[in-house]
Amino acid sequence: MSKSAIDTGILLETGTNELEILEFYINEIREEGKEPVPNFFGINVAKVMQVIETPNLEPPESAPHPSFMGTIPLRDLILPVLDLSVWLELDMPKTERDIVIVTEFSKSVTGFLVSGVTEIHRVGWGEVIPPSSIISTNTDAIVGLIDKGDYFVQLLDLETILSQFEPDDGLEMAVSANEYKILVADDSATIRAMIKANLTEANLKPIITNNGDEALRTVMEFKNKAEAEGKDITEYLDLVISDIEMPLMDGFSLTKNIKQDPVLRKLPVILYSSIITNELRHKGESVGADMQISKPDLHTIPQVALELIEGGAD
């Protein structure tokens, strides 16, 4: 399956709180001597370059992680291949019918070995159920569930997986002379902790929420409190930082709601995602985002936040 074969509908109307996912499955041996059972997963179609047949790699002894299977050539690239079943702790039987989903995001191209691909779904973020309400999982790479009736599709955050392979940048942080209040919306505990630490180190005060829906409710509470006390919204909140892909409400819809509100629209909004490209950047612009950042550049958020807040105050 090539990129062109899965490209239809990626550029959905912005602010509709929808996304398209590629559904795939990983077979799991649960009982010896019985047929493997499929586990269904989904990733954003916009992150998928193409789907190829298994290269039948044998993991090297010096692998940096048990899921690392080696590298393969593709076009003019040499890309790593990760066994997703190892990461998810599923006992997947290897067959000649296995496939590799080649993804491109966070400025990197990576292959993920799985058992097979099923279909593409268009879903609303409101349909995505937070995983903690249905299943217990040992990884925060599973960020939501989609109920298909007789089975659940587990929505994966591949950035969480790849972050384990990327060392910290070790860059110096900007430090603010004022303790500005920053609302953060992200469904990944790993990314929330990273951004909270970066903001705190820069003397900024993070207010953490788990998704766009919770973030919007929190912003509206600040608005109502400000109006009741006759104060400006910036007495309670100075800026909003949001991931784009989240259950219940995505970052585009959150931004659209903020920028369409006559009181809240003055708040700068920073959107970030692993899939921010020149082609997709217009989506954030169309809903009024003040800045868009790729996830590999999250270390720049404190500096960008300071520039937006203090630049807007001039």
UniProtKB/TrEMBL annotation:
Top-rank taxon: Bacteria
The CheW-like domain sits at 18-167
Single GO biological process annotation from the record: phosphorelay signal transduction system
User: What InterPro entries has UniProt attached to this entry?
Assistant: Chemotax_regulator_CheV, CheW-like_dom_sf, CheW-lke_dom, CheY-like_superfamily, Sig_transdc_resp-reg_receiver
> Keywords for this entry?
Phosphoprotein
Query: Pfam families from the xrefs?
Result: CheW, Response_reg
Modification 4-aspartylphosphate, positions? 243
Residue span, Response regulatory domain: 181-310
Kindly give the PROSITE patterns that the UniProt entry links to this protein.
CHEW, RESPONSE_REGULATORY
Q: What is this protein called?
A: Chemotaxis protein CheV
